[in-house]
Each structure stands twice: as structure tokens, then as C-alpha cells.
From TrEMBL:
Residues 32-278 form the DNA ligase D polymerase domain. PANTHER family: BIFUNCTIONAL NON-HOMOLOGOUS END JOINING PROTEIN LIGD. This is DNA polymerase. InterPro entries: LigD_pol_dom (IPR014145), NHEJ_LigD (IPR052171).
């Protein structure tokens, strides 16, 4: 089709123009824009759930994943009437709360969706605690071993959690919380867990912030979880050769050696029909007893 080929989709009563539906966005898998829109429509009930009340940052790839890209925080212009905007400072963020908004963004070649940790209207009290396990090298065969150790330690503290691939190289560990703690309080727990793991497994973990000083260790990032910062949203695609998708896992899958590249745009739909949203499998946790314990004076050794 010609470069200026366009079509129109009727999405929940909204007319959305689609430009260049045959444009290939992920060349290695032959995924065109139209295919992408179709898969996203199936992902929408899951992706929207975890973005609808967050400040959204997208990454746009107008010519596919191997072309130039740019981050977009402010809502693209012109903005359709059906798109809601949330203002924070001098930025007007798109509120990703509807299928028409998602399809409109996807037509603009938004291939990644990153959601803020803080919720719109609730900046101080997060509703989940997130630990980011970040490899220092592009290929890290130990990443699931590291994630399993984090999960086991949290379990020993009485804290159930859900692992999630970033869709890139890392894994995030997510604990839904009751929403009565601050980011700083959760950071305190994260620091304790990270320092303990770095001491117990010094050849695997580090809490060193500077990447140049980490060597080949896996970074236990408890600092990223903070107001104003973002995470690859659950179920967002990633602009990588394998068209990977950020995917929640079971702990059995982690211990069984699942890899971030296992879940992608061509198989995520079938997986979700089997598993549903695993992020709903753990109820909100009250972590105040953990924080109170950590604040107690520790006996001299």
C-alpha cells in the first residue's frame, strides 16, 4: 500500500484514523501496525487496568523498532475529545483509561507504555511496593535465580509477592499494599532486603547505584520505586526484536527458568486466556508490622 494509505476504525463509538496499517513495526516477527492494533485490543482489559489512574509516558517509534524513537509525556497534538488529560506541574499527561485512547496512541506508534508509581490524585501513598531486579549485562542467565531468592526472602517475612518480567532484561517483584505507607517507608523495607541479599549473596546482588561499579552483579534497585518515577506497565509491549511483553509470572515459572523473552505479542493473548491477570492473585498487604520490627533497636552481636 502507498505511504499515505489510511483507514478508519470504529472503536467503542469513536472514529479513529489509522495511517499506514501495513507499516512493519517489528521486522523480525513481521508485525505490522494493523497486527499491533489487533493484539493491543486484546491486551486492553489488562493494560488499561494498570495504567488508568497513572501518569503515562510513552515511547514512540514512528518507523518501527529500529528507527528513531522519542519519549512523550505531554499529550500529542491534536488530542481527540475522547482523550482525558491529567495535569502535573506543566505537563498534561494522557490518561490511558479507554480502548479508543489506547488505539489512538498505538496508531501514533507508541510501542511502550510506562506508568508512574504514584497514582493520579494520590501522590504520597502507593498501592504497591516494587523491587526492580536489573542485570548489569544484556544477557543474564541468573536473573530468575535472583528473582527467586528475592521472592523466597519476602515469603520468609510473611510477604506474598508477584514477579513480573520487564519485557526487557530485568524482573520486577510486586507487592500490593494497603495504601497507608509512604514511598519513603517502603524504601526503608527495600533497603533492608537489598542489603541483606547483597551480604548473603555477594557474587549475585549489589545495591551499588552506579552501573560502572557493578561489574556483572545484578542490581537490587529499591530506590526506583518513588513518586514521579515510572515502570514498564504490566502488559506493555517492548520495542525489542522479540516483541516482548512485560508479563506477570507465577513463582513456579520463575523457579522453572522462565525468561523475559518467552512472552511476546504473538503469544500473550493465549497466555492471558489461561492465566488471567496474575497481579490480582495477591491481596493488598499490611507492611506496617515489618516496618515496626525494622525500627526496633537490634541487639549487639
Amino acid at each position: 500500500m502507498g505511504a499515505k494509505h489510511k483507514g478508519v476504525l470504529n472503536v467503542e463509538g469513536q472514529q479513529i484514523a489509522v495511517s499506514n496499517p501495513d507499516k512493519v513495526l517489528w521486522p523480525e516477527l513481521g508485525i505490522t501496525k494493523l497486527m499491533y492494533l489487533q493484539v493491543l485490543a486484546g491486551l486492553a482489559p489488562y493494560l488499561l487496568k494498570h495504567c488508568a489512574d497513572r501518569y503515562l509516558t510513552t515511547i514512540r517509534y514512528p518507523n518501527g523498532i529500529h528507527g528513531k524513537s522519542f519519549y512523550q509525556k505531554n499529550a500529542p497534538e491534536p488530542t481527540p475529545d475522547f482523550v482525558r488529560i491529567a495535569h502535573q506541574g506543566d505537563i498534561g499527561y494522557v490518561v490511558l483509561d479507554s480502548l479508543p485512547t489506547l488505539i489512538w496512541l498505538a496508531n501514533l506508534a507508541c510501542l511502550e507504555f510506562h506508568a508512574s508509581f504514584d497514582r493520579i490524585g494520590r501522590p504520597l501513598h502507593p498501592t504497591e511496593w516494587v523491587i526492580d531486579i536489573d542485570p548489569s549485562r544484556e544477557e543474564e542467565p541468573r536473573i530468575m535465580e535472583a528473582a527467586a531468592l528475592v521472592g523466597a526472602l519476602l515469603e520468609s517475612l510473611g510477604i506474598p509477592s508477584i514477579p513480573k518480567t520487564s519485557g526487557a532484561t530485568g524482573v520486577q517483584i510486586i507487592v500490593p499494599v494497603t495504601g497507608d505507607m509512604t514511598f519513603d517507608e517502603l524504601r526503608g523495607i527495600g533497603q533492608f532486603v537489598g542489603e541483606y541479599l547483597a551480604r548473603k549473596h555477594p557474587r549475585l546482588f549489589t545495591i551499588e547505584r552506579l552501573k560502572k561499579n557493578r561489574g556483572e552483579l545484578i542490581y537490587f534497585d529499591y530506590l526506583q520505586h518513588y513518586g514521579g518515577k515510572t515502570i514498564a506497565a504490566p502488559y506493555t509491549p517492548r520495542a525489542r526484536k522479540g516483541a516482548t511483553v512485560s508479563t506477570p509470572l507465577t513463582w513456579d515459572e520463575v523457579r522453572g527458568g522462565a525468561q523475559p523473552g518467552d512472552f511476546h505479542l504473538l503469544n500473550i493473548g493465549e497466555r492471558l486466556r489461561r492465566t488471567g491477570d496474575l497481579l490480582q492473585s495477591v491481596p493488598p498487604q499490611n507492611l506496617r508490622p515489618i516496618l515496626a520490627f525494622l525500627k526496633q533497636p537490634q541487639p549487639m552481636r
